[in-house]
Fold this protein.
Amino acid sequence: MKEFTLDQVNEHNKENDLWIVIDSKVYDLSRFAALHPGGISVLLAKGVAGKDATNIFYGLHRQEVLLRPQYTRLVIGKVKGEEETIKIPPPGTISKVPYAEATWLVDSFHSPYFKESHRTFHKATRTFFEEVIRPEALRCEENGKRISQEVVDKLSEMQVIAMRMGPGKHLQGRKLMGGTVKPEEFDYFHEYIINSEMSRFGTRGFMDGILNGAVISLPPVLKYASPELYNKVVPEVLSGKKFISLAITEAFAGSDVSGLQTTAVREGDYWIVNGTKKWITNGTFSDYFTVGCQTDRGLTVLLIERTEGVNTKAIKTAYSSTAGTAYVTFDNVRVPVGNTLGKVNKGLSVILSNFNHERWVIICMALGAQRVVVEECMKWATQRVVFGKPLSSQAVIRSKLAKMISRVEACQNWLDLITHQMNNMTHEQVSDKLAGQIALCKQFVTKCARETAEDATQVFGGRALTTSGMGKVIENYHRTSGYDSILGGAEDIMRDLGVRQAMKKMPKDARL
Ligand code: HEM
């Protein structure tokens, strides 16, 4: 690379002949200056034109700006005797920013839960997500389009779709994340890693668009479908050829599942289904729906294929339409009786048993996103200069950081403990002993998330209000962190459920 002295750079300090230095690299902005999104005048200012503008640059731009090909082309050389000091981390890197990572990933910290296999798996997962998924996440979040088939194929090649259903026999014979973990070793900590890694891009809509519909709707098929139905549907979904959504919620009933109004009436070997479902994640592009219906004496869960009488229409929500959120209508849909999941009229237990895993997944994702927000705030508080000093020199900012850190660490520790129980309990024990803990942990994590969103917004100021630039991750988080506090069960319902479960277990002879 060509080398220049700072004096040589300094000679190019005017319009049409403009060089600057960022972190030892010399950029020729002569032609770009007129196109610069921040305007030309800021580039011609004293202290910028022909100067080392590293600190000014990082006060105004994210590192990723310099990685864009149209800007890397502006580099014409480097400053003699200087080396790069701000290294752009390669995919898979573990952040060195304090509290940016769960402690089990931090040097010299120990964990009773995570083993070498989790570390190897984590490395491969983070690399895969950063290289393959991140660009897609950013693209889809912005343009609102559904995940591309090309990326779905890569997810299925790595067996990500299968792993997101949790440990179990559906993983047998599969090469998980390039063979970094054996199917029989795969546990809920591995699954937690996937869920939290995919949440790191500041793209909440895409976090649902990356087939969260399948995560919440395929487990009842895995558990309750007849062998014929299982053998048809499960391979199609796990290979990414077909898509599936959970369709329980209606405009008429959400957390009060027993109040659902969609009906299924027996007619020979078929159910005739009529009704509507709302807020159905991935619904706009799903081929199958796991549907809660009223039958003569209770609820029954059916797997309904997109056939005649099934229609979906996109619902506009506050997050990106890449999630495929839909309003689904069933008009006299004929569903073979063989598509019944679980016992007729006993669908409530099918639905409820599925909720624990769904809520746990939401906790993992919400926490992954919260971690990133802490990292963003730590970096911003360090690099943003106000009144001539870094933002972190203000005690009010440090106080906000302290609250954010404490929240994310408290949430993490509770999640780790619950995940450890899931690894060691049977499905029945999880339903009996852990449903309350998962519900309480979910409402705690989502409440913390919203408090952290509020604090982070104050730390970033106006930048947290724009969808591009320095505060874009915080903007997305502030706008969407409420989703986790509603989806899978609203916070108040979670609190009530957790305490009711505890009350059920109060010993009869407990006295003060
Ligand atoms: C290689 C050099 C540079 C490139 C490629 C570049 C590129 C950009 C881009 C893409 C944006 C839009 C916002 C974003 O995506 O982050 C932007 C905004 C901006 N840039 Fe630059 N820039 C460069 C150097 C500088 C320098 C040296 C200054 C010094 C004052 C500057 C000042 C600004 C300002 C004030 C904004 C608006 C920021 C905001 O809206 O918050 N830029 N620049």
